[in-house]
Automatic annotation (TrEMBL):
Binds 1 zinc ion per subunit. Its main location: membrane. Catalyzes the reversible hydration of carbon dioxide to form bicarbonate. Its EC number is 4.2.1.1. Zn(2+) binds at residues 584, 586, 642, 645. It is an enzyme of class 4 (lyase). It is found in: Membrane. Residues 32-379 form the SLC26A/SulP transporter domain. It comes from Rhodococcus koreensis. This is carbonic anhydrase.
């Protein structure tokens, strides 16, 4: 018995060798993650210090948040290559919270915000945070950047920042007149290094620009005889660890602060995770898990005296660019910051405040991205962008974002519920024929515009109202119907032409719903499904027999000609089709529809029964083959039959009656199908395969006929030679009309064409 169990547990013979062990994987990844973590550490260090200063928080709070973000969010979060820490996006919010409640109470708010983020993640609603309009997020970051720059320019000039943007602007001229030149020089060095660092040639670019800028400015400040304000630390990293205290203030304001921090931190982290996923081809982010990780990091950071934590795109992109493979890089970067903060804090106290001010000014300016402005202008969202930025800068972040979101929603509703409408005469002004076109979503909100448009149509005309709508409520339907009835009572005629997916007969019978899908293109649908059936006695210039064709031409000119013209313009000098498509003359077969092809793709030859007479007995087919292969150099020849073929019915009926039939033209032509009839009666394998799929005898014969015509082409002197040389491929297809599906016909079988060719 033991031997049987051992055999069951043993891998089968030929099984692939087991993959690397966990230790081997760790060693393989460590050669990428270790150096990447050092690069991210060097980038994060000065940024964390600068963000703490911009947030009016203790300096060590920035380092604590960087440590916790790296270790906790890096270990627990769902985005393996994202690096978390204090972010510029929350500086304005944190500074306002510190001014209102104090630092320790702000830490309590950070803890509560982290708890809320964990609830978001466990509720699996992370993706809902991505529903915020990107233009609002971009404008929010731009507003934060402008606010930071306006604050820190005072510090760079040797002064201190003010509590409001208005004060920072109005006090700037006075600050310029009393500027301290040593601070200006040090800050300018940082700005210059950051702006020009990307242009530095060679291997120096491996070093992070912010670190180089701050180190260079610090060394310069120590060499030059300037009395500069420097960073002051109240004790060590461990002295900065402190428990939070409960906020003393209005609980509504506290709840607002908690929600603001939680939402901004969540949205910024998720947007950063999405951006990071686009930068690498590894494991994708788990957004709900990422929120749990971010929330855990914020709870711990707030509990021990750190700033709020978010995923930071600057550090994350650096991590990916440095070659990181796993989350170990983010965790290790937090460890390096811990080591530095515990052992080398004396170096931090040598950094001039003006150096960090220069760093923050550049960070703030970089949050205003010209690419986002161009996108907002291109998409028509520039007003949303501008209003959001103004609100964030001059009111506060929450109010600015709310105003921006409200404006974005209003603009979206306007675009969605505002249909495009136009009324125009068909032909000349005095033709007596008008067309009214309505496209989009039609609700009672559009009623004033539509009724005003309909009022412009002159009385007594023949009017076609084209409703290409995906939503139509009962009020709008009644307005159109009332106008139609009133207009016809005054001598005019009105035809309602529903082009969209809305069922006009169902309007008013149930609550309105947006139509699913789109209307069938007029080029696909038969005339009878869309051309109005009315008798206009006043119309005498167009013969009744030609009206369907001419109406179709008019529809083509109005709806398709403009879209088709650029493609036809490319074909003005000649055609170069890919395939010769030989099919039946049956009106139900539209080769370009069933092959999703357009002008210039198919060279089509049609006859009754899609036949290829042997011995060059039909000059029309022979001319088509010769021209397609010799002149057009097609790469394939396709024979396509179809279900319910009248020619096959006639051939089958002849076989069953065992008569020669009459000598009419059709009967004479169908003698070329005798080889197909004999193959069918002889039990051709294609007939058996078709029968197994449930097709009747007529369709079985139709499929056998395709297989026989393909064989005939293979023996054809011209086609056979081209096929032997590899210049052309011959294939068979069959269009099943009831299911609108295409099948492949080979010499021995039948199969549905469901696969995507590669």
């Amino acid at each position: 018995m033991s031997s049987i169990l051992e055999n069951e547990k043993a891998p089968p013979s030929g099984a692939p060798a087991p993959g690397p062990t966990r230790g081997e994987r760790w060693r393989n990844n460590a050669r990428y993650d270790l150096p990447a973590s050092l690069v991210v550490f060097l980038v994060a260090l000065p940024l964390s210090l600068g963000i703490a200063i911009a947030s009016d928080a203790p300096i060590m709070a920035g380092l604590i948040a960087a440590i916790v973000g790296g270790v906790v969010a890096g270990s627990v979060g769902g985005s393996p290559l994202q690096v978390s820490g204090p972010a510029a996006g929350l500086t304005v919010v944190v500074a306002e919270l510190v001014a209102t409640f104090g630092w320790k109470a702000t830490c309590a708010i950070t803890v509560a915000a982290g708890f809320l983020q964990i609830i978001f993640g466990l509720s699996r609603i992370a993706r809902a945070a991505l529903a915020i309009a990107p233009v609002v997020v971009h404008a929010m970051l731009a507003g934060i950047g402008i606010t930071i720059a306006l604050q820190q320019i005072h510090v760079l000039l040797g002064g201190s920042s003010h509590s409001s943007t208005v004060e920072n602007i109005t006090q700037l001229p006075g600050q310029l007149t009393s500027a301290r030149y040593g601070d200006v020089l040090v800050g300018a060095v940082v700005i210059a290094v950051l702006l020009f660092w990307k242009k530095i040639p060679g291997k120096l670019k491996v070093l992070p620009g912010p670190l180089v800028a701050v180190v260079a400015a610090t060394v310069l400040s120590l060499v030059l005889p300037f009395d500069l304000d420097r960073i002051t630390l109240d004790g060590s990293l461990f002295d900065a660890v402190a428990l939070p205290s409960m906020p003393d203030g209005p609980w509504l304001a506290v709840a607002t602060g908690v929600l603001t921090v939680a939402l901004i931190a969540s949205v910024e982290s998720l947007l950063s995770a999405v951006a990071v996923d686009k930068m690498h081809g590894g494991t994708r982010s788990e957004f709900n898990r990422e929120l749990v990780g971010q929330g855990s990091a914020n709870m711990i950071s707030g509990l021990i005296g750190g700033l709020p934590v978010t995923g930071v795109i600057v550090r994350s992109s650096t991590n990916v660019a440095a070659g990181a493979k796993t989350r170990a890089s983010a965790v290790l970067h937090g460890v390096w910051i811990l080591v530095f903060a515990a052992l080398l804090t004396a170096l931090v106290e040598q950094i001039p405040m003006a150096a960090l001010a220069g760093l923050l000014i550049v960070i703030g300016i970089q949050l205003v991205k010209m690419a986002h402005l161009r996108t907002a202008r291109r998409t028509g969202d520039l007003w949303v962008y501008g209003v959001t930025v103004t609100g964030v800068v001059f009111l506060n972040l929450l109010e600015g974002v709310i105003i921006g979101l409200a404006l974005a929603v209003v603009l979206l509703l306007w675009r969605v519920i505002h249909p495009r409408m136009r009324a125009e005469p068909i032909g000349s002004e005095d033709s007596g024929r008008w067309r009214v076109t309505v496209e989009g979503s039609c609700s009672f909100l559009s009623m004033p515009a539509l009724t005003g448009l309909l009022a412009k149509v002159p009385a007594g005309a023949h009017v076609t109202v084209e409703l290409a709508v995906d939503f139509l409520d009962h009020a709008m339907f009644e307005a159109i119907d009332d106008w139609k009835r009133h207009y016809e009572n005054n001598g005019g005629t009105v035809v309602i032409d529903a082009l969209g997916p809305v069922d006009m007969n169902a309007v008013g019978a149930s609550p309105p719903r947006r139509g699913v899908g789109v209307a069938s293109p007029r080029g696909f649908a038969p005339w009878k499904s869309w051309q109005p059936r009315h008798h206009d006695t006043a119309e005498t210039t167009t013969p009744a027999a030609l009206r369907p064709v001419l109406a179709g031409v008019s529809e083509y000119h109005r709806r398709n000609a403009a879209q088709l013209q650029p493609h036809l313009d490319d074909l003005r000098d000649g055609q170069r089709p890919d395939s010769l498509f030989l099919t039946c003359s049956d009106s139900r077969i539209v080769p370009n529809v069933i092959t999703s092809s357009g002008p210039g793709d198919l060279f089509t030859v049609r006859n009754v029964g899609n036949l290829v007479p042997t011995g060059k007995q039909d000059v029309s087919v022979e001319a088509g083959l010769a021209f397609a292969l010799d002149e057009l150099e097609v790469s394939s020849v396709i024979v396509c039959g179809h279900s319910g073929c009248g020619a096959m019915k006639a051939v089958l009926a002849e076989a069953q009656a065992d008569t020669d039939g009459s000598e009419g033209a059709v009967e004479q032509w169908l003698t070329f199908a005798q080889p197909s009839r004999k193959a069918f009666l002889g039990g051709h394998p294609v007939a058996r395969a078709a029968a197994e799929l449930g097709f009747d005898e007529v369709d079985q014969l139709g499929m056998v006929n395709v297989a026989v015509q393909v064989q005939t082409l293979g023996r054809h002197p011209l086609v056979g030679a081209a096929a032997a040389e590899g210049r052309v491929r011959v294939a068979g297809m069959f269009f099943d009309i009831p299911s609108a599906r295409v099948l492949e016909i080979t010499s021995t079988g039948v199969s549905y064409l469901d696969h995507v060719p590669t």
